[in-house]
Amino acid sequence: xxxxxxxxxxxxxxxxxxxxxxxxxxxxxxxxxxxxxxxxxxxxxxxxxxxxxxxxxxxxxxxxxxxxxxxxxxxxxxxxxxxxxxxxxxxxxxxxxxxxxxxxxxxxxxxxxxxxxxxxxxxxxxxxxxxxxxxxxxxxxxxxxxxxxxxxxxxxxxxxxxxxxxxxxxxxxxxxxxxxxxxxxxxxxxxxxxxxxxxxxxxxxxxxxxxxxxxxxxxxxxxxxxxxxxxxxxxxxxxxxxxxxxxxxxxxxxxxxxxxxxxxxxxxxxxxxxxxxxxxxxxxxxxxxxxxxxxxxxxxxxxxxxxxxxxxxxxxxxxxxxxxxxxxxxxxxxxxxxxxxxxxxxxxxxxxxxxxxxxxxxxxxxxxxxxxxxxxxxxxxxxxxxxxxxxxx
Length: 393
Fold this sequence. Notes:
Layout: H1 2-31, E1 43-44, H2 68-80, E2 84-94, E3 100-113, E4 119-122, H3 124-127, E5 132-138, E6 144-153, E7 158-162, E8 174-175, E9 186-191, E10 199-213, E11 219-226, E12 238-240, E13 245-253, E14 264-268, H4 269-282, E15 292-294, H5 299-308, E16 313-318, H6 323-326, E17 333-334, E18 341-343, E19 347-351, E20 354-355, H7 359-366, E21 374-381, E22 384-391
Parallel strand pairs: 8-13
Antiparallel strand pairs: 1-6, 2-3, 2-5, 3-4, 4-7, 5-6, 6-7, 9-10, 9-12, 10-11, 11-14, 12-13, 13-14, 15-16, 16-19, 17-18, 19-20, 19-21, 21-22
């Protein structure tokens, strides 16, 4: 009898893990089921992603006992925060058998309303998520909208989205003049750091004229440096002046730990003002050009510059009908088999007096101009330094 009871207990112990596995598998399949009813994808007013924040509530009057500076900050936030949105990139999820199981959040960031047509501005790197299948925008009223990507510029780390929200639900940001900034003036950053929505941080303009790299390695010029705390999730959010005007788009931080260390960078609003309208109109940003082709791999350029003991950018080819062709710029010629240089092309060394040492610097400097502008290009030709006027195309 004792042996029979022992054998029964042993069998029960062996069956328990199997039964538990079946129960867990059943629960998992039920939890992952995609048969749950969904609202139309164009507009869903539902409980937003937990990171998107809490529903809005009626705000009481600003306390009268607050100091003037405190009242101004409170009023600035309450006035401008409706322009700021929470952005989530989505990716398709599949079960163990590869069957689609719906979309899951893949990354988050911040953006802001640009106009009453539903255009939303953010950083290009916010939506540059591998396997992205969709983008959602959560407004300040907690309505959630599916967004389409209009276009972007990796060189400026800017992207434009569009949502089908009515103009009455949109609160476009007011764009300021970043060229008028001064070191020491107050700035305010609104964003969603670490998924905490509608977060305000304050600081000052700690430096101007900084240079950082865009996603494609092109330098972004005249970047604003600020000590306002900018953390993961703040990317793409607005940097505002004390009047509530946009002066920059928060894009990067300098930190060994990945958290704010008091050195943040924002793309200046005047760059945004120049780039965004073209993206909205055409879906891309085409930078101003001289009309020359450069050495993309750099083999010939490095060889020629080393022989000339010079710095600059070697012109490989001049495009017909371009401003460079009309100005008489000269390209580089190679032997039929490409083994040697038979004619050294012009070496661009400066644009309007600003030294040029790389192709990235040339693109960054030309980006300040508009098609039709005339620029003075300093070139090295046959050992002589010449200035030629080229019309930007």
